[in-house]
Design a protein that fits this description.
275 residues; 2 strands; mainly alpha; elongated; single chain
Length: 275
């Protein structure tokens, strides 16, 4: 970092890796423009290039998914379109199909290059790649990141409920679960039926003031019975429903910055020309 003083006595700072002068370190990312390219790859320029790539993809009428990335991409990449807020994609459908100038061959080349970075440099690092893609996608489309993350969480909750329902339902013809899992489900159902019948009879004969105590005893019997028979219901976590997809905003920001740094470092080591 180099500082200098102009004729008016104003001190400015030159940020390493950039052509030109900026007044503050916070202007680093804003310094990236069409006429101000870094001398070497930086995390900020990687992010700017990916945002530009998604803007170009939108203007070209393309989509994020199998046709854009190919079947050889990791599953996380192929399903990325499904993890972006569906309403947001609908809102931009008209814009994508509207008559506007198609991107130039140079813009398409830059887009293709940038969109290949997650697979090339972050393959196997699903959370890093997904965080970087989601953040740059949202920036390119001016979408609310909190809404996108909340949409993912809602989808995970629906999937979680379905997973637990399938894991804990009564055995049926053609059931593919292990016999031990089917036995636990059947034992738990019989235990619940017995406790429920006893509790309902007690509730019908007891005054309302004693209902809470009866219900508490029924819950205690159920827990004790499940423990004795080892037939507790199967429980999952949100990250089991959407692995590597459900995260807080702070986690996303931390991971996407780490991903940008990794991509920038590997681009420098690979000797890729900055553009």
């Amino acid at each position: 970092m180099v500082t200098k003083m102009d004729d008016a006595g104003m001190v400015t700072t030159q940020i390493p890796g950039f052509q030109g002068w900026v007044d503050d370190l916070n202007d680093r990312i804003e310094a990236i423009g069409d006429t101000d390219i870094p001398l070497e790859w930086t995390p900020e320029h990687v992010g700017a290039r990916l945002i530009e790539a998604y803007e170009t993809l939108r203007e070209s009428g393309g989509r994020v998914g199998p046709k854009a990335f190919g079947n050889g991409w990791p599953e996380m990449m192929r399903e990325f379109a499904d993890l972006v807020d569906p309403d947001a994609q609908k809102n931009h459908a008209a814009e994508r199909s509207s008559s506007r100038n198609r991107p130039s061959s140079e813009a398409i080349s830059r887009m293709t290059e940038a969109l290949a970075w997650p697979r090339r440099f972050l393959d196997g690092e699903l959370m890093l790649a997904d965080s970087l893609m989601l953040w740059t996608y949202a920036r390119a489309h001016e979408l609310d990141m909190e809404r996108l993350l909340h949409s993912r969480k809602k989808r995970a909750m629906v999937m979680l409920a379905e997973m637990e329902h399938r894991a804990n339902r009564l055995p049926r013809a053609g059931d593919t679960r292990l016999l031990s899992e089917q036995w636990r489900a059947a034992a738990r159902a019989m235990l619940c039926a017995d406790i429920l019948a006893t509790a309902n009879a007690a509730l019908a004969a007891a005054p309302p003031a004693e209902h809470h105590q009866i219900q508490a005893k029924a819950r205690a019997r159920l827990l004790a019975g499940c423990k004795a028979l080892k037939c507790f219901p199967t429980k999952y976590r949100l990250r089991d429903a959407l692995p590597n997809r459900v995260m807080a905003r702070t986690t996303l920001d931390r991971l996407r910055k780490q991903a940008m740094q990794i991509v920038a470092t590997k681009l420098r080591r690979a000797g890729v020309a900055v553009r």
